[in-house]
Amino acid sequence: MTPAARMAAAIGVLDRVLGGLPAEQALLRWSRASRFAGSGDRAAVRDLVYDALRRRNSLAARGGSLSGRGLMIGHLRDAGLDTGAVFTGQGHAPLPLTEDELGAGHDGEVPDLPDWLLPHWRDALGERADQVARAMGQRAPVWLRVNPLRGSVTDAIDLLAAEGIEIRQDARLATALCVTSGERRVAQSRPYRDGLVELQDLSPQLACAQLPLAAGDRVLDFCAGGGGKTLAVAGRQAGLRLFAHDADPGRMRDLPLRAERAGVDVEPMQHPQGHFDLVIADVPCSGSGTWRRSPDAKWRLTPEALAALIATQAGILGRTAGLVSPGGHLAYMTCSVLDEENDLQIDAFLARHAAFSRVARYLWTPIEAGDGFFLSLLRRAA
Ligand SMILES: C[S@@+](CC[C@H](N)C(=O)[O-])C[C@H]1O[C@@H](n2cnc3c(N)ncnc32)[C@H](O)[C@@H]1O
């Protein structure tokens, strides 16, 4: 496909997304109907769609309308490219710009967030609000976590380099590697297949590095999903007894294979009982910290959905409180930057649970780390 044909395809996909179809489904529908498209075409159309969704409001303003065409016109103008060279109507290229389209659009700054969310965003991030919002408009880098149970950081760096994957180490955490080239080769690479490296953003890695762990500790990952946090803590401390639970056990279907690849023993628990030295509650959330990776979710979040998530989080906190040993810890995590899901949620929990106190609190953002990620570490009195 020519670059112009790819852009025409992206316009069609974006119109479907703006009509209400989730981005992944819209892309899948297009790629099923476009057997002629190769993997490079699919990747390029996907990039155009995701880049446009990350900066939906500002590109629509530049392009003059919130439509597939408006977004792609905005995308070209933003990059300083000539719309006339792409919108030619020749072959599979989009039709030339109309008189109205030629006259529409402005380049003033427009926040790339839903209007209803702006006050929440500003309350949570204060003077950093605009900077973090802009950072959410950029693509997220790929981060890897070296699994010390399978080899050293040097082994990982050398083996990745041998497969053309270049990295840069994070100064704060030696096991956190940012991929600087060869991202698309990671999932097929030997260190990944052998469990020496896992895909994990920097911020949750930094969060897991703050958890108090000692050999012999019983650790429960209460919202385990694919087990990212379970595997990360297993890599930090030998001799842990690890238990994984999820309200939807189907979400843990990949965990046995991932754990085996990583050399980690994890016991699934359908009905957690008893006490644990550390309970990790990596709760379902708005994902507002990860909107660089899933920008579609930013526009799909509603006040009602946020309220429902906040209620679920409060319920999980209440349930997990009873599972923490006296003197043990509860690690509450979200990949959100919103106060309602973070500090306000914890303030309300502490007001209801006098036995707990706050030991530490972190909010990472793309400005100084990776995705937006929150950790509140609470201790139950002995
Ligand atoms: C943010 S995801 C967890 C991601 C996972 N910890 C990881 O690192 O890959 C939240 C998980 O919470 C689970 N969940 C939702 N409601 C729950 C509840 N009431 N109790 C336990 N788990 C719940 C969801 O099924 C989902 O897998």
UniProtKB/TrEMBL annotation:
Gene Ontology BP term (one): methylation
GO molecular function ontology, one term from the record: methyltransferase activity
UniProt-annotated binding residues for S-adenosyl-L-methionine: 246, 282
Coiled coil regions in record: none
Catalytic residues (UniProt): 335 (nucleophile)
Sequence intervals crossing the membrane: none
Residues covered by the SAM-dependent MTase RsmB/NOP-type domain: 132-382
Keywords: Methyltransferase, RNA-binding, S-adenosyl-L-methionine, Transferase
UniProt KW Coiled coil keyword: no
Matches recorded under PROSITE patterns: SAM_MT_RSMB_NOP (PS51686)
Family designation: Belongs to the class I-like SAM-binding methyltransferase superfamily. RsmB/NOP family.
Protein name: RsmB/NOP family class I SAM-dependent RNA methyltransferase
Organism: Paracoccus marinaquae
Biological classification of the source: Bacteria, Pseudomonadati, Pseudomonadota, Alphaproteobacteria, Rhodobacterales
